[in-house]
Amino acid sequence: FNMKVSVVPWLLRAALLAAVLAPGRPLAVSSVGSEVRLLATPPSALAPVLASQSRAQRVWKTIAEGLDPFGMDMPQELGREAAKLLREAFPLEAARGELCTGVDAAVGDVAADGTTKILVHLQDGLMAETVLIPTDSRTTICVSSQVGCARACAFCSTGAMGLIRSLDAHEILGQLFAGMQEAQRRELPPLTNVVFMGMGEPADNLEQVHLAARTMVEGFRLGNSHISVSTVGPSPEAIEALESLPTRLAWSVHAAEDDVRRVLVPTTRHSMVELRDAFARVLARRRDRGLFVEVALVEGLNDSPHHALALAELLRPLPGKTRVNLLPYNPFAPEASDLPRAQAHALFRTPSPETVKTFQDVLYSEGFVCTVRSTRGADSASACGQLANRASLSQSRRPSKEVPPAASS
Ligand code: SF4
User: Fold this and answer.
1) Is residue 197 situated within a structural domain?
2) Which long-range contacts (CB under 8 A, 24 or more apart) does 211-214 make?
3) Together in a domain, 85 and 109
4) What is the C-alpha separation between 381 and 74, in angstroms, rounded?
5) Which of 129, 147, 151 best tests ligand 1's pocket when mutated (most atoms within 8 Å of CB)?
6) How confident is the model at residue 156, as a pLDDT?
7) Residue owning the nearest CA to atom 5 of ligand 1
8) Are residues 82 and 129 in the same domain?
9) b/e string for 276-293 if b means 16 or more Cβ within 10 A?
10) Per the domain annotation, does 163 fall within a domain?
11) CA 157 to ligand 1: nearest atom
12) If you measure from the C-alpha of residue 6 to the centroid of ligand 1, how many angstroms do you get, rounded to a whole number?
């Protein structure tokens, strides 16, 4: 294999382009225009660069085990030619002698149930968060796709920050890599599941989320059905764009009635029927097994049997098996200067367990699988809607220059 050094990075970029682009998808500019990282180069993109599928698989087997190929004796472990080509293709990482994950992870609070918040320091000084959720048999990681979020959900502490910036694929995958290493260090059950339910709206950063999800499947060898991308569904167009994700889809519905939905997700610009119909088309084309649906229940706002019946009516036309997950509201404390949110927060209460049970029973009787998410990690502020700590919230004072693609819809 006789390739000039200067050609290798371009070959890598071309291979990455071919791997990332699906028919009809726009160019993933931020991935191919900037320095390419090994962590965001799935095996199918790495193979042409290493001139061998098996070399690419060997490199990825190492990473999927939580090991850093640049931190080991590469000629010994991967073979001399593969090591040489890898160094040429990723000069920054070769010079540093380690994978560039783009994140510096620090373990934060560990809740009584083992749920662990990991603070993710990014290279530009910003911070995101990720959460490890161990159970008896497996560990799930909840990753962030953005710092802050433009969707401004009234019950969400990340929404209080506004959007600061989107994460690159290697920064999303860096959270997974750090989570795997932490799970191994603490001898937690294997990390097999990923949910995109941390900070940010994945549909507003779809190119990078798509590359990250694809790499999780191809490189980290996680099952497609073990990865779930959760979205508020900013617009019918944004929902249709989720079709090619190699993951399960989850819709944060929160309310079936348009007026109630706009209280909870103030950036909603479309009726719930329009959004539901877009999901129905996507699920039918994907031949999906069904949609996960999330509902943050707030006392007196969307938690009555009447609301549950309206939700059942909204969801009934969806193809496949729809599973509803109820999330009783997790209180958080907005900054006093954020008056509208502070006022909303003052009005929001967690519904009683009896109210939640009644809501669940209505959905059961309407034929839906319906679970109630325990507020795991609530004592360490790791529960849903709480992924913004004091340091993160202070980031919101920086102006956002980014307009998410779906924001104008
Ligand atoms: S709930 Fe999700 S979409 Fe809504 S503001 Fe929070 S992070 Fe964004």
Assistant:
1) yes
2) 211/20, 211/28, 211/31, 211/40, 211/42, 211/169, 212/40, 212/145, 212/169, 212/172, 212/173, 213/245, 213/246, 213/247, 214/19, 214/20, 214/42, 214/246
3) no
4) 41
5) 151
6) 87
7) 159
8) no
9) bbbbbebbeeeebeebbb
10) yes
11) 6
12) 43
Residues 81 and 114 in one domain: no
What is the C-alpha separation between 253 and 316, in angstroms, rounded? 14
Distance 215 CA to ligand 1 centre (A): 24
> Is 404 a member of any domain?
no
Residue 260 has a pLDDT of 96
* Domain assignment of residue 261, given as a range: 103-395
What total number of domains does the chain contain?
A: 2
> Hey, what are 314's tokens?
């909204």
- By alpha-carbon position, which residue is closest to atom 4 of ligand 1? 153
Q: Which residues are catalytic?
A: 129, 384
- Binding-site residues, ligand 1, Cβ < 6 A: 149, 151-153, 156, 158-159, 199-201, 232
Do 296 and 347 lie in a common domain?
yes
Q: Which atom of ligand 1 is nearest to the CA of 201?
A: 3
Whether 17 is covered by a domain: the verdict is: yes
Residue 141: strand pairing partners: 132, 194
* Ligand 1 atom having least distance to the Cα of 146: 7
Over residues 384-394, the mean pLDDT reads: 45
Going from the Cα of 381 to the center of ligand 1, the distance in angstroms, rounded, reads 15
Q: Say how far apart CA 88 and CA 80 lie, in whole Å.
A: 12
pLDDT for residue 159 is more than 50:
yes
Instruction: Write the pLDDT tens digit of every residue in 90-111.
Output: 998 999 999 988 888 888 778 8
Query: For 122, phi and psi rounded to 5 degrees?
Result: -95, 165
Of 199, 201, 262, which is best to mutate to test ligand 1, by the most ligand atoms within 8 angstroms of its C-beta? 201
Residues 221 and 367 in one domain: yes
Report residue 408 as tokens: 């104008």
188 and 264 housed in the same domain: yes
